[in-house]
C-alpha cells in the first residue's frame, strides 16, 4: 500500500496500463510536458514520450474523433477532455458516433477507448466549469460511465476502463484531486459494474457517487450519534449499474436516500429511485428521498456554491427529518 | 487565391485500369438506379441519399486504394462502400431492412459499413467522420502499417467546425489521410456558393492549413484516378494529408424527398452532358476495348444488380432479437446486473 492523492492515482493508473499494453495511447490538451491542468498526468510524458502522450490543439471534436478512429483500427486510446463541461463541444462524437457505431454496424466495430474528464463543482469556477454531467452520459445507450470517489478506485477503475472493450466515460471529480488515500501496490484493477458498501447500518441506505461519497460517509457518522444507523453505498459505476448490491441494501434497511451532485431533473438517483420503486416497493418503509443540487446552473461565489451542492449538514438534516 | 485546376493526364491510365473504372462506375450506377426504383415500389422505408452522377470519384479512389486502406464516407455512401468490394446483395438487403442486410437491419441506408473490406462506415452527421478518419490515419501511422485513410464528404461539410479541426490536426500530426470533398454545388437544397465565404469551398480553404489547393473535375474518371494515386501515394510515403475538391453533380435531389426543383434547367442539362459514365465510354473504346466487350461489362453489371436485388428481396425481415444485441462488446445490451 502506498498513500497517493487522487490525481497521483490517476497518473498511476494510466502508467500501469501504458506499461502493460503498447497499444494504449493518450491524447489531450496540455497533458504532455505540462502534466495536465489538474496535474493528474504528471510524469507520463517523460516516461512514455511524445508519441504515446500527445498534446493536441483545443479541438475537442478532433480529440474525440481521433480517439474513435484509432480505437476502431487497433489502438486503445485514452482521450482527456479538460473539463466535463467541454463535452458539450464534442457531444456529437460521443453520443452519436462513439455510442452508436457498434450497434449500428451490428458489432463490426469495437471501440475500446476511455474519455477522462474533470467533473463537478466545489472549486468556485462557475457554471461552465463545475457541472456534474455523468447523467448526460448515462442517458445515452452505448456508453459506460464511471466516477471514482477515492484514490484506490481512481487507479483501479481507470485501469479497468482502459482494458474494457467498450467506450468508457471516466468522470474524475475535480474537488477530489488533492484527497489522499491508500492505493494497493503493483497491478491494481477494480472491475467495472460493482458498487461498494462502505458502511453498514440497519436503518437506511444512502447511495452516493464520487465527491458525494465522503460527504455521505461523514453524514452517516453524525446520524449514528443521533441513533440512525445508515448504510452507505458508493455507486462507482453508473453503467453498468450494480443494481443487485444497491437494491439489496435498500431491501435490508427499507429506506433509500440518494446524494447527487447533479441538478435535480433526471439525475442518476432518479433512475435508482425508479428501480427501487419498481422492484423493492414492498420492502420500502418510507418515501425514497433524493438529495441533489437544485435545478439551477451552479453559481460561482463560495457561499452560493456551498449552499447549492448537497452538504454534510443537508444530508444529515434531510435523513433525520425523513426518518422521524 | 492560387487554386490549381488539375488537367487530364489521360495517357497515365492504362487499359486494364480503364476497364476496371468503367465496370465499377456502371455497377455503382446500376445499383443506385435500382435503389431508386425500389423506393418507388415503397420497398425502401426511411430516407436515402443517392449518388447518381457522382460515380467517378468513388470508383477512382476505390480502384486506387490498397485493400487494407480505410474508407470513411457520408450518408450518401452506397457508392463508396460498394467501391471497396462490399457485397451488393448485403447493401441492397440493408436498404430493405432485411435480416441478410449488411448491418442486419440496424443501420440502414445512411450507415453502410463493411469493415472487412475497409469500408469503415457511412456517417450521417455532417463533418463527424473527418476527425474519425484522422484517428484511423493516426493509428496507421503509429502502427507503421502503411495504411491510408480516405475520407469523402460533401461541400456542405466545409462550413462545419469538425472539418477545420480535422484538417488542422491531420496537418500538425502529418497523418496519412486524404480528404475528398465532393462538391455537387448544393449543400442540401441551398447552393453552396450562396452560404460560403470563398468560391471553392474546400480548395480555397486548403492554404489555411498549409496544403496545396487542389480542384479537379470529379466527373472525369481519369483525372480522378490520377489525383487519387497522387494523394494516396503521398500519404503512404509519409508526406501527410491532402485536401481534394472534386466538382460533380447529383442527378437527383438531396434525398428521396427532394425533387430538386430549385436547380436551373440549363445547369442540369449542362451537367447531365458531363455525366461521368457517358463521358468515359468513348475513352474506354479509345483505349482499344471493343464495343462488344463494353456491352458485356454493361450486361454483367445489370445481372449483378438483378441478382443482388433478388437476394435482398428474398431476405426475411430483420429479426426482433437484434434490438438488444451488440450495444456492448460482449454482444449484449445489458446495463445492469
- Round the Cα radius of gyration of chain B to an integer and report it: 20 Å
Q: How far apart, in Å, are the first and last alpha carbons of chain A?
A: 42 Å
Order of helices and strands of chain A: EHEHEHEHHEHEHEEEEHEEHEHEHH
Question: Count of DSSP E strands of chain A?
Answer: 14
User: How would a crystallographer describe the biggest sheet of chain B?
Assistant: 7 strands, parallel
* Shape by Cα distribution of chain B: globular
Mean pLDDT of chain A: 97
Summed over residues and divided by their number, the pLDDT of chain B gives a mean of: 94
The CATH architecture of chain B comes to: 3-Layer(aba) Sandwich
Word description of this protein:
The complex is a heterodimer of chains A (324) and B (337). In chain A, helix 8 links the parallel strand 10 and strand 11. Chain A has twelve helices and 14 strands. In chain A, helix 9 crosses helix 10. The mean pLDDT of chain A is 97. The radius of gyration of chain A is 19 Å and the shape is globular. Chain A has two domains: 182 residues, Rossmann fold (3-Layer(aba) Sandwich), CATH 3.40.50.970; 128 residues, Rossmann fold (3-Layer(aba) Sandwich), CATH 3.40.50.920. Chain A is an alpha/beta fold. With 337 residues, chain B is an alpha/beta fold. Chain B has a single domain, classed as Thiamin diphosphate (ThDP)-binding fold, Pyr/PP domains (Rossmann fold). Chain B contains ten helices and seven strands. In chain B, helix 1 crosses helix 2 and helix 4 crosses helix 10. Chain B is globular and about 50 Å long. The mean pLDDT of chain B is 94.
Question: What does the secondary structure layout of this molecule look like, with pairings?
Answer:
The complex is a heterodimer of chains A (324) and B (337).
Chain A: E1 2-5, H1 6-20, E2 24-28, H2 44-52, E3 53-55, H3 60-71, E4 76-83, H4 91-98, H5 101-104, E5 114-119, H6 134-138, E6 144-146, H7 151-163, E7 168-173, E8 180-183, E9 196-199, E10 204-208, H8 212-225, E11 230-234, E12 237-239, H9 243-253, E13 256-263, H10 268-279, E14 289-293, H11 302-308, H12 312-323
Parallel strand pairs in A: 2-3, 2-4, 4-5, 5-7, 6-7, 10-11, 10-13, 13-14
Antiparallel strand pairs in A: 1-8, 6-12, 9-11
Chain B: E1 4-5, H1 15-40, H2 55-64, E2 70-74, H3 78-82, H4 88-95, E3 119-123, H5 129-143, E4 149-154, H6 161-172, E5 177-183, E6 214-217, H7 221-236, E7 242-247, H8 265-273, H9 276-286, H10 291-314
Helix pairs in contact in B: 1-2, 1-9, 1-10, 2-7, 4-10, 5-6
Amino acid at each position: 500500500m502506498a498513500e497517493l492523492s487522487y490525481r497521483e492515482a490517476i497518473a498511476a493508473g494510466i502508467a500501469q496500463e501504458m506499461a502493460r499494453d503498447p497499444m494504449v495511447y493518450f491524447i489531450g490538451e496540455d497533458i504532455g510536458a505540462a502534466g495536465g491542468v489538474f496535474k493528474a498526468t504528471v510524469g507520463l510524458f517523460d516516461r512514455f514520450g511524445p508519441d504515446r502522450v500527445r498534446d493536441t490543439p483545443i479541438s475537442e471534436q478532433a480529440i474525440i474523433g481521433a480517439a474513435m478512429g484509432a480505437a476502431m483500427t487497433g489502438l486503445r486510446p485514452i482521450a482527456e477532455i479538460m473539463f466535463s463541461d467541454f463535452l458539450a463541444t464534442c457531444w456529437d462524437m460521443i453520443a452519436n458516433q462513439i455510442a452508436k457505431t457498434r450497434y449500428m454496424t451490428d458489432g463490426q466495430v469495437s471501440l475500446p477507448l476511455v474519455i477522462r474528464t474533470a467533473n463537478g463543482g466545489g472549486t468556485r469556477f462557475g457554471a461552465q466549469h463545475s457541472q456534474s454531467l455523468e447523467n448526460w452520459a448515462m442517458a445515452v445507450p452505448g456508453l459506460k460511465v464511471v466516477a471514482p470517489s477515492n484514490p484506490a478506485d481512481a487507479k483501479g477503475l481507470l485501469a479497468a476502463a482502459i482494458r474494457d472493450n467498450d467506450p468508457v466515460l471516466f468522470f474524475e471529480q475535480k474537488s477530489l484531486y488533492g484527497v489522499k488515500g491508500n492505493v494497493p501496490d503493483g497491478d491494481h484493477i477494480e472491475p467495472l459494474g460493482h458498487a461498494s458498501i462502505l458502511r453498514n447500518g440497519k436503518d437506511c441506505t444512502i447511495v452516493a457517487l464520487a465527491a458525494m461519497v465522503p460527504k455521505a460517509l461523514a453524514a452517516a457518522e453524525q446520524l449514528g450519534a443521533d441513533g440512525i444507523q445508515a448504510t452507505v453505498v458508493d455507486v462507482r459505476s453508473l453503467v453498468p449499474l450494480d443494481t443487485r448490491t444497491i437494491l439489496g441494501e435498500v431491501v435490508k434497511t427499507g429506506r433509500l436516500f440518494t446524494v447527487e451532485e447533479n441538478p435535480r431533473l433526471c439525475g442518476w438517483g432518479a433512475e435508482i429511485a425508479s428501480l427501487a420503486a419498481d422492484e423493492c416497493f414492498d420492502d420500502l418503509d418510507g418515501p425514497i428521498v433524493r438529495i441533489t443540487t437544485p435545478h439551477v446552473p451552479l453559481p460561482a461565489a463560495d457561499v452560493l456554491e456551498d449552499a447549492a451542492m448537497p452538504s454534510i449538514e443537508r444530508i444529515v438534516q434531510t435523513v433525520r427529518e425523513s426518518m422521524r | 487565391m492560387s487554386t490549381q485546376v488539375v488537367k487530364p493526364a489521360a495517357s497515365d491510365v492504362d487499359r486494364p485500369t480503364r476497364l476496371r473504372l468503367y465496370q465499377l462506375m456502371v455497377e455503382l450506377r446500376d445499383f443506385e438506379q435500382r435503389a431508386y426504383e425500389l423506393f418507388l415500389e415503397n420497398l425502401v422505408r426511411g430516407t436515402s441519399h443517392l449518388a447518381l452522377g457522382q460515380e467517378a470519384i468513388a470508383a477512382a479512389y476505390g480502384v486506387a486504394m490498397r485493400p487494407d486502406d480505410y474508407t470513411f464516407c457520408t450518408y450518401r455512401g452506397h457508392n463508396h462502400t460498394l467501391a471497396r468490394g462490399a457485397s451488393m446483395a448485403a447493401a441492397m438487403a440493408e436498404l430493405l431492412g432485411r435480416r441478410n442486410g449488411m448491418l442486419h437491419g440496424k443501420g440502414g441506408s445512411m450507415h453502410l459499413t463493411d469493415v472487412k473490406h475497409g469500408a469503415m462506415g457511412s456517417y450521417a452527421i455532417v463533418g463527424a467522420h473527418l476527425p474519425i478518419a484522422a484517428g484511423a490515419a493516426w493509428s496507421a501511422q503509429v502502427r507503421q502499417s502503411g495504411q491510408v485513410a480516405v475520407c469523402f464528404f460533401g461541400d456542405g461539410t466545409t462550413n462545419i467546425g469538425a472539418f477545420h479541426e480535422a484538417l488542422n490536426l491531420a496537418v500538425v500530426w502529418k497523418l496519412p489521410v486524404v480528404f475528398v470533398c465532393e462538391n455537387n454545388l448544393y449543400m442540401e437544397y441551398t447552393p453552396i456558393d450562396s452560404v460560403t465565404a470563398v468560391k471553392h469551398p474546400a480548395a480555397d480553404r486548403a492554404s489555411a492549413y498549409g496544403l496545396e489547393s487542389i480542384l479537379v473535375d470529379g466527373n472525369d474518371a481519369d483525372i480522378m484516378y490520377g489525383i487519387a494515386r497522387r494523394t494516396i501515394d503521398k500519404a503512404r510515403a509519409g508526406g501527410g494529408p491532402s485536401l481534394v475538391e472534386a466538382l460533380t453533380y447529383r442527378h437527383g435531389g438531396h434525398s428521396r424527398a427532394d425533387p430538386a426543383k430549385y436547380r436551373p434547367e440549363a445547369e442540369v442539362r449542362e451537367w447531365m452532358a458531363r455525366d461521368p459514365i457517358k463521358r468515359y465510354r468513348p475513352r474506354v473504346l479509345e483505349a482499344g476495348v471493343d464495343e462488344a466487350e463494353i456491352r458485356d461489362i454493361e450486361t454483367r453489371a445489370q445481372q449483378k444488380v438483378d441478382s443482388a436485388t433478388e437476394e435482398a428481396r428474398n431476405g426475411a425481415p430483420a429479426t426482433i432479437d437484434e434490438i438488444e444485441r451488440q450495444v456492448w462488446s460482449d454482444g449484449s445490451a445489458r446495463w445492469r446486473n
